[in-house]
Amino acid sequence: MLYPQRFTQFTREHADTVAALLCGLLLFLGWFALHLGALGLALLLLPAAYVIGGYESAREGLTTLFKEKELDVDLLMIVAAIGAASLGLWRREYHLIIDGAILILIFAISGALEGYAMQRTERSIRSLMSLTPDTARVLHQGREAEVSISQLKVGDEIVVKPGELIPTDGIILSGYSTLNQAAITGESLPVEKTVGEEVFAGTLNGYGALQIKVHKPAQSSLIVRVIRLVEQAKTQAPPSQEFIDRFEKGYAKVIVVAGILLATLPPFLWGWDWETTIYRALTFLVVASPCALMAAIMPTLLSGIANGARQGILFKNGAQLQKIGKVRAIALDKTGTLTTGQVQVYKVIPASEYTQIDVLKAAASVESSSEHPIGKAIVQAAGDLDWVGAIQVQAMPGQGIVGIAQEQQVFVGNAVFVQQYVTNLPEELREMAQSLEEEGKTVVWVAKNPNPQARRGAEVIGVIAIADEVRSQAAATISRLKKLGIEQIVMLTGDNQETAHSVAKAVGIDRVYAQLLPEDKLDVIRRLQQQYQTVAMVGDGINDAPALAQASVGIAMGISGSDVALETADIVLMADRLEKIVVAMHLGRRSQAIVKQNIVVALGFIMLLLVGNFLGNINLPIGVIGHEGSTVLVTLSGLRLLK
Fold first, then answer.
1. Distance of alpha carbon 347 from alpha carbon 335, whole angstroms
2. What is the rounded CA–CA span in Å between residue 112 and residue 15?
3. Nearest CA-CA partner of 192 in 207, 170, 213, 211
4. Each residue of 98-122: pLDDT tens digit?
5. What is the reported pTM?
6. Using CA atoms, how far apart are residues 414 and 585, in angstroms rounded to an integer?
7. pLDDT category, 124, cuts 50, 70, 90?
8. Which of 245, 309, 389, 443 is 20 to 30 Å from 436 by CA-CA measure?
9. Which of 333, 468, 544, 570 is catalytic?
10. Three-state SS string across 8-49, please?
11. Contact between residue 64 and residue 70 where contact means Cβ atoms under 8 Å apart
């Protein structure tokens, strides 16, 4: 029973692909039967190929005709295919039925590819919804009870234990903890939260238990707003319409009207007989079929997509390959995009009479008992050194950590914390620490006391600067983007101004937007689109999802990126290599040029065939040869992008 269920599910999820495959199979079998002289079998197989491959296009074409009063290429394709088949039956030139089936097969394949591209929105929303728990632990008369998120009311008090996700936005009533807000605000370091401060749904609680008061409906939480923004941005039309979409509508109208006129007027205007008139009208529908126009686009885009995939660039649809070649402005997220998103020891400055090794060994001895990201970064930096873990370790949330290592008391924390145990902070270290903090670094002070029993008397042995490392290729990428002619490059981040400007200066970005929430990033993208029309956004976090969806081209980092960012983006850099943005833009510009060349060639062939048909210098076989020949020519031209 399992295999039939899987087969049914597969056919349901990939209906367009299955239809295209069946159409191709029936077309081949019909051609083979015709080649063997089995006319009856061929006339059974080929109509089945028409129905299976052309059903979706016929449905869409007729729906557009009756509901929107518009003629499109889908309907024109059906008319041309049926016209070719009718002419083949009438004149007993059965190979024309094959030509009509080929037209249908090409459109069936195109429809299947489009269907895959359109499934992203639903997956994006499902990924976002998984960020928040389904229930919350509500405190009522001293007892805890789990209730659905939808049942929460303003004023409810909820309990969040260490390691749990915050279920809804609220204000802390009691407790102290660090919260990982990277998914929502993009901040590179966990944020310390205490009584009276706001917490957001979807953020991860650290080591402390929290009691939170719901201060707004769950439907108004930040993460729900992110979901709503993604939905809205996905349904909005892009700032510029694709040229080919506009052209197809006008082309279909002209060809259909011209076909009707050609089938009715010549006997009255030029005295043609009806057999000649119908013959040339049907030939007109075949040679005017947009098959060559479609081949002018899809092979080119698919070749570009394959080329990008070989270089670690995943284009989710062909339209985005074209759009990235038109980008005039680009916005880049900081954390996880321009930086690695992993905090590391940036610099170790020892006090006089001590070395960097002394400072790292002392700090690692107590931080080895900590789960804080800063502690992990210090332990990682001291990994190759010979240090011993401290005992009697005690953490003071938001301040620092203390323990006893090799019979000496070691203090690691911020300046206020360490100052409680030392006589004074060395002035030269204080100046260096202030300078590092102005650059956006987090500074940790390290001190030790040879007499653990004494309250004071500890001595500062050095400071450690912690920073989110800038990607090595970031500065070179920004420089290449400027040389490529990108008119505006901006950085967006949820981090503070000092850190933001420090990173921007390091990579060569002049325009910075800091301390942004997801909706603020979306607003920036909209303002850029008003000025520059086609705008790209590069990001990796959930907080980037609305901006990625709104941007003309959304680009996500494949390794560091969150699931929702990967689902929402149009392009994914699989190896997190920023320099591939430039490669993607080159591919986009080449694809634009080749598509334009192919369209000119395709239209040129169509015009020659139409003129020849009108003057009576070609018959239907020559028209089909010209039509198919132009299709092959532009297809081979599109394959140039594989290089």
1. 20
2. 8
3. 207
4. 877 877 787 677 666 555 544 544 5
5. 0.61
6. 45
7. very low
8. 389
9. 333
10. HHHHHHCHHHHHHHHHHHHHHHHHHHHHCCCHHHHHHHHHHH
11. yes
